[in-house]
Amino acid sequence: MEKKSNRFTTVSIPKRLADRTKKFIEKTGFTSLSSFVEYLLREIASGKNEYGKEEKEDLEGVEEKLRRLGYL
User: Fold this and answer.
1) pTM of the model
2) What mean pLDDT comes out for the span 17-45?
């Protein structure tokens, strides 16, 4: 059986970005910064657009931006 502590990991983002994002999500249905980030990552990782079609070019663009920022 998997330990509960192994089910999650910590991701670090700049505090300023976290604070701005928290203000942004106050106007949404998200209850926490973690739930919002999880949603975004699931959307990006799915590789599909709103119509269910693959968006490989968009995903590659996001990966390139993350690489330039030093996250990949």
Assistant:
1) 0.56
2) 89
Whole-angstrom Cα distance, residue 36 to residue 14?
Answer: 16
The distance from CA 44 to its chain's CA centroid, rounded to whole angstroms, is 7
Residue 4 belongs to a domain: no
Q: Which domain holds residue 58?
A: 14-68
Q: Which residues pair with 48 in a beta bridge?
A: 54
Interacting residues of 11 by C-beta distance below 8 A, sequence separation 6+: 37
Tokens at 2, concatenated? 């998997």
Tokens 């490989």 -> residue: 56
- Domain-embedded: residue 34: yes
Q: Which of 59, 23, 67 is nearest to 42 (CA)?
A: 59
Q: Domain count of the chain? A: 1
pLDDT for residue 24 is more than 70: yes
